[in-house]
Amino acid sequence: WREHWHYSTIDLYRRIILSSVVLSLPTVETVFVLAFTVSVYCVLMYREVGPYWDASSDVLSYVCGWQVVISVASLLLTECLMRGANQGGASTSASSTEEERDASEMSLGIVLILTNVAMVGMVFY
Fold first, then answer.
1. pTM score, whole prediction
2. 113 — alpha (psi -120 to 50), left (phi > 0) or beta?
3. Contact at 8 Å (CB) between 92 and 83?
4. Residue 50 phi, psi dihedral angles, 5° rounding
5. Residues 6+ apart with CB under 8 A from 18
6. Which residues are CB-contacts of 86 (< 8 A; sequence separation ≥ 6)?
7. In the list 30, 44, 101, 105, which could disulfide-bond 25, CB 3.0-4.6 Å?
8. At a CB cut-off of 8 Å and minimum separation 6, what does 98 contact?
C-alpha cells in the first residue's frame, strides 16, 4: 500500500475532471471524448496496478469504474438518438420517432438501473 499512496490523488483528479472540468468544455463532442478517455484510462490503470490493500477492493473499484464507462457510453447513445431524431427524414412521422426515442431512453435507463443494482450486489459479495 505504501508504494501506491498517490492513487488517492489520481482518483481525486479523476473525480474533479469528470464532475467539473467537463462543464467548462465548449462542445458536447469534447465533453464525451474527455469523459470517455479519462474513465477508460482510470479503469485500466486501477486494473493493472491494483493499488488497494485488499484484492476485493481492487475488483470493486474496477467494476465501479466500468459503471462510469457505461454511463458515459449511454449518455453518448442518448445524444446520438436525440440528434438523429432532430434530423429525421420526411418519410418517418414525428410521433413514431418520438415513441422510438422514448423506448430507447427507457431501455437505457433500465440497463443503468440494473447495473447499479449489480454494483450493490458486488459490495456485499
1. 0.75
2. alpha
3. no
4. 60, 65
5. 35, 38, 39, 68
6. none
7. 30
8. 85
